[in-house]
Amino acid sequence: MMKSRGEADQKxxxxxxRELDSIFNSDDGGVFTSGKDITPAEYGQAVxxxxxxxxxxxxxCVGMPDPVIYRSQVATxxxxxxxxxxxxxxxxxxxxxxxxxEESAQKAAYIEGFENWAEAMRRLRELDxxxxxxxxxxxxxxxxxxxxxxxxxxxxxxxxxxxxSDFGRTHPEWRIPFAEGESGDPECEWTGALDPAIPQVxxxxxxxxxxxxxxYDIDGIEFDFRRWxxxxxxxxxxxxxLTKMVRETRQMLDEVARKKGxxxxxxxxxxxxxxxSEPNPSLFPGIYYAEKxxxxxxxxxxxxxxxxxxxxxxxxxxxxxxxxxxPGLPLTxxxxxxxxxxxxxxxxxxxxxxxxMNDAAKPVPDSPNARRKHRDEIVQAALKCYADGADGISTFxxxxxxxxxxxxxxxxxxxxxxxxxxxxxxxALASPAALRRLLKASPPDAGLATNxxxxxxxxxxxxxxxxxxxxxxxxxxxxxxDIAAAAREQRLESAVxxxxxxxxxxxxxxxxxxxxxxxxxxxxxxxxxxxxxxxLDNAWRFAPDPEDxxxxxxxxxxxxxxxxxxxxxxxxxxxxxxxxxxxYHGVGWYRQTFRADDDLLKRKAVWLLFGGVDKxxxxxxxxxxxxxxxxxxxxxxxEVLWNQPFAFNARxxxxxxxxxxxxxxxxxxxxxxxxxxxxxxxxxxxxxDPSRAIEEILVTESQAGWLTLQPEPSLYRVGDNRVTxxxxxxAAGGQSAAQLTEVEVHVKYRDSL
Length: 753
Prior knowledge:
Blueprint: E1 22-26, H1 40-51, E2 57-63, H2 82-90, H3 101-126, H4 131-142, E3 146-151, H5 166-170, E4 175-177, E5 190-194, H6 199-215, E6 220-224, H7 235-260, E7 266-271, H8 298-301, H9 305-310, E8 316-319, H10 332-339, E9 345-346, E10 349-350, H11 368-387, E11 393-396, H12 406-411, H13 416-425, H14 432-438, E12 452-461, E13 473-479, H15 483-488, E14 492-502, E15 511-514, E16 517-518, E17 533-535, E18 539-544, H16 550-553, E19 566-569, E20 586-596, H17 598-601, E21 607-610, E22 613-614, E23 616-621, E24 624-629, H18 631-634, H19 638-641, E25 646-649, E26 657-667, E27 673-674, E28 678-681, H20 690-700, E29 705-709, E30 719-726, E31 739-749
Helix pairs in contact: 1-4, 2-3, 6-7, 11-13, 11-14, 11-20
C-alpha cells in the first residue's frame, strides 16, 4: 500500500457528496506567519486557528497549478520567483523614475513581506516538512477532510504570472492570447496564463495533479476555475479539452484511491456564477464585477458543468462570483436543477465582505450595530442559498487567524470587527437552523473600545406566565455591572437598550418596559413591519411504512397512538436517511400536533406552507386528506417535486384547540422526507409563489425592527433585568403576533475599564 506525506494511522471519514455542509476554501497558498525563523509548531498553530472557523471540508490552495507550496519533482515551489515577479508586477514602474519616500517605504515593506513568505517555505523544507504536510496532520487531528485546491489558471501577477514557474519561463509562447479587444492595450497580446489546449501544458498540469495525490495523504482535489478567468484559449471551441482534464482526473483519483486502500477520494470544482447568463445586476443583485470575462458564464469560460455532473465526474460543485461583495450570489437554482437526480452536491459561495464595508467614501466605524448588520447580511445570503436548494455553503478567502493570537492581532489590526463577525458566522453556515439561531444572538463584542460592554438576554419568558399578561412578550437580561452606581459616580457615558421586535406594526403599537417601568417612546425608532407567519414545530414523530399500510391502519388519524415512533427534525436540511434511517426508500409518515386559537379560526384563509418535502407528499389534517403534492395531483416530475415549496388553504380542516397534522411521504431514492420547516401564513390572499414566500420567511428575522432606547440609568439592576413589550395590537384592535426576539444593552463608560 502506498505511503503518503502527512499520513496518519486514523483516517478521516468522508461525508457523502450532499453532506459536506460547509467547504472552506483557503485561497492564499498557506498561512505563513513569520520568515526564516518559522517552526513546524508555529505553522501548525496557524492551521489550528484556521480550522477553528468550523468547516466540514478544508479546500487548501496548494498551487496555481504551477508553482506549488509543497515539495515537488514536477512543479516549481512558490518561493523561487515570488519576490522577483511581485516587484516586476507592482513596483517595476518605480524603477523608471525617482521614487518618493512613501513609495520607497511601500516597496521595502512589500519586499520584506514576500521575502518572509519565501524564507518560511524554504525553512520548512529544511526541516523536512512543508505547508501541505503540516496542514494534513492538523486536519487529521480534527477529523476534517482536506482537498488540495488548485487555482486552474491564476493570474495574481497579471501579465507576469507565467514567470512564477520554471515551466512557464521556458515556454512563454504557450500563453493564452487575449481575445480581440479584451486587453485594452493593442500592444499587449498575451494573458499571464498558460494554455492547456497545448498538449505539453495539459500533460504538465496532469502530472502535477497525479503527483500530489500519490505523494500526500489528501482526501481529494478541487479545481478552482474562479482563479482567474482565462481557463483555455477559444473556450467555446476548446471546452472538450477541459472536460477531458476533469474526466481523466476523476479516473486518476479512483485509481490512486484503490492503490491506497481508500474507498474514495473527493473531486470538487469551483465554477462560474451561471451556466449561460450575462453578468448584469438584474440577475446578480449587488454584483461588483458586472463584466466579462471576470464573471463570465460557465459556457463562456469553457466549463461544461452539465456533462461533469451527468457523467458523475465530480462530487461537488461550488458556483461563485469572482471575489465579490455581499449581497452578490451565484444563480444557485440553475446548478441545483442540473444536479437533480444525481449524487453531486451544490455548494454556492458566500463571501465575507459587504459592499458598504468597502465604501471608502463612507467609512463605517466598528461598532455593535455594524457587526450585527454585517453578520445578518452573511446569514441572509446563506439562507437564500439554502432556499434555492443548496446542499451547503462554500466560502472563499475568509479570514484564517484568531484575532486574539499574536499573529492575528498583527494581521487584523485594521479590520478586527470583520474578522470577529466571520469567526462567529462561519460555524453556522452548515445548517439553516443554526443560521436562524444566530440571528437571535448578539454580535461579537470582543475587541471593541475598552470602555464598552455588551450584555445580551439570557432567559426567555413564555407569554402569560410568571404574572405577565397574555399579550406580553418578555426576555430576561442579566447585567453584571452596576449601571446606576456608575451614573451616580459620573463614570457612565451611556447605556443604550436595543430591543428587537418581530412582527410589530407602528411604534405606537408596542410599549417597552424595563423592570416593569414604561420607557420613553420618543427616543425609539419604529420596527419594520413583518409578514405574519407562525413556524410549526420542527420536531416530528416519524415511522417508516415499508408495507404502505399506514392509511389502512389510520396512522393519519388523531386517535392513532404514535408512541414509540422516532423523533426527527425538519430544520436541518436533511431527510430521514440522515436521521437514523439510512438506506430506507419507500413510504414514511410524519406526525405532530399544533393548536388553533380564536385568532387563527376567525380568518377566511389559513395557508399551510411546506418548505420542502422529498418527494411525493400527502398532507392530512385531523384525519382528512387536505392536500396532495404528488406527480398525479400536480403534473410535475419528481425532479421538480422534491425541491418545490407548496402551500394550501387549511382553514376548512382546522378545529378549535389541538389539531393533528400527518404527512405521508413516498421517496424511492435519495434522502426522503420533510427536510425544511413548515409554516402557517397569517394572510387571506393566496400565496402565488410559495418559493418566494419561503425566501421571505428565511430572511425575515434578520430584518426585524430594532427599537433603540435610553432608559434612566437608575432603572437598570445588577443581575436579572426583565424587558417586556406590551399591548401590541393589530389593525383590527386584537392581539398582534409581535414577539420580542432579542435584547441587549450597550454600555459605554467615560474611561477605560
